[in-house]
Amino acid sequence: MLLRPSLFARALAGASTLALAVALAAPAQAGPTVGFVESFTGAGNWGGWDGGADYSNPGTGGIGGAADGYLRMARSAAAGRLGAKCQGADYVGDWLAAGADRVKFSLNDVGADQALEIHFLIGNVNNFWQYNVGFIPPNGAWAEFTVNLADSANFTHVISFDPYGYRFALANTDRVLIRHDKSPYGQTPDAILGDVGIDGFKIESTTVGVGDAPIAVGRGVLLAPPFPNPSRGGTTLAFESFDDAPVTIAIFDARGRAVRRAVVAGAPGRRSWAWDGLDEAGRSTPAGVYRVRAYGPAGGTSRALVRID
Questions:
Q1: pTM of the predicted model, to two decimals?
Q2: Domains of the chain, earliest start first
Q3: Which of 157, 233, 299, 304 is deepest in the core (most CB within 10 A)?
Q4: Tens of pLDDT, residues 242-278
Q5: What b/e readout covers 179-196, taking b as 16+ CB neighbours within 10 angstroms?
Q6: Cα–Cα distance between 156 and 304 in angstroms, integer?
Q7: Is residue 231 within 8 Å of residue 277, measured between CB atoms?
Q8: Which residues fall within 8 angstroms of residue 8, CB to CB, at 6 or more apart?
């Protein structure tokens, strides 16, 4: 029996929707492997990473020393999106099935000292998530940073063209991305003039030791989530540092203007600094989204803070 065109179109649309739902529900082939390390060894080796910025690899100066290269991504001619993505076989697939719940990579603010805040993103073209913790690379040195993939509450859904959530994105990953961005976070990051080095990208599991040899890189100041957040009054900013260097805490508003800055005496361990919600002139700061940066010579981290009336 022939269907009328309208009924045929509806049947075809229904079949297509069902096929798409089945395809999306099926787990992607597991490609990520716990213990994988991308070292960017060799001049000109990008490791399959690319995007819209300028990329290079000098073949030296990476975390392994003179014989080790690194991926350098830059925006030097005009301010733009500073980032690099990879859709290689080592990153595409089912991260949940692989047991991968943590990634690590080292960063270096090469060249001039810049206000970089580097984030990690994972998922697919329809379902993409950004890690909220911003990594502040040290200037002219390497520091290693860790992304906790198990902490879904610390990710922002920057692309949500399908109705599926964070775990579905991990199970159906078709790309990873490292980019500069400042809160509030969205699909399009903030533009910047600058450059940054990336090296030693690792896929790990918190339950499986990978047995890799330690490399002498620094550890930046680790800023805990501000509390309370949102806040009407004061906010406690707890942090952990790993050397004797002083720690700078800087608070910026949504337009990038510094509203408060403090320097805390250096000492390894966990400490806190209380922000009273006032700017440098002693005036109460208005409601809005703010960024808190905690860093030292070995780099640091940034987090978003919301003030409400």
A1: 0.87
A2: 37-204 (2.60.120.260), 222-307 (2.60.40.4070)
A3: 299
A4: 999 999 999 999 988 999 999 999 889 999 999 999 9
A5: bbbbbebeeebbebebbb
A6: 11
A7: yes
A8: none
